[in-house]
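Researcher: Structure for this, please.
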Amino acid sequence: MSEDIDLNGDSERKQDSKRKAKDESAKTIPLYKLFSFADSFDHLLMFVGTVGAVANGISPPLMTLLFGNMINAFGGTKNSNEVVDEVSKVINSS
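Model: Predicted structure, token format:
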């Protein structure tokens, strides 16, 4: 009576033995062996993914700089007629 029956009818002891068997059957390999099976198309995809990740990481700081320069152009003009020209200069220079 020490075993608790699950809703599926399996006892805890059976579930534990299933987990242990599953853990023992899972074998790991080193990272360099994982990449040794890659062909040239896989290398191309890894390269494109790396370039995309770098571009994705660089874009927020660049947008922050562009937006900051644009806001400074709004506030830096003394005449309200020159605001559009100053902001256009900043946007076109970036």
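Researcher: Any notable elements?
Model: Residues 12-93 form one domain. The chain is about 70% helix and 0% strand.
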